[in-house]
Amino acid sequence: MEIEHVTVIEKPADEVWAAFDDPGLLVKWQDRLESYEQISGEPDEIGSVSKQTIRRSSGDLELTVTLLDRREGEFSQSRYEGMQLPFTISNTFSAVDDDTTEWHVVVDVRLNLMQKALGPVLKGPLTELAEQNGEDFKKFVEGR
Questions:
Q1: What pTM does this model have?
Q2: Residue 9: which domain range?
Q3: Residue 41 DSSP code
């Protein structure tokens, strides 16, 4: 199952990328992100692993995040594991003009045969989460 979302940010692409690519800023714009810890490798190194703790009403959730691909200034892809539905997030950044950047997010959730029935139920909340993260990041970057 794929979820896509596009956010247009009124800042130059290099500023948007710098904010997105700085792991120290993650907890500042992701409301539910409790903590970030680099486990192995450098944050911008393909294959590096980090641990992210997400605050939930049912208790904190620890996710292991592996950087799968990265192209400086334009693309990042990571795999998230630690819950029943592992997923991959791809982030693409494109300059619309000198002062505007488009952030395109694709969340790819791999459902097994039994989980496929949950697809329609999960799509709404996951779409809302992608939209909220987009708006939170936009507000954070434009406010800098």
A1: 0.91
A2: 2-142
A3: S
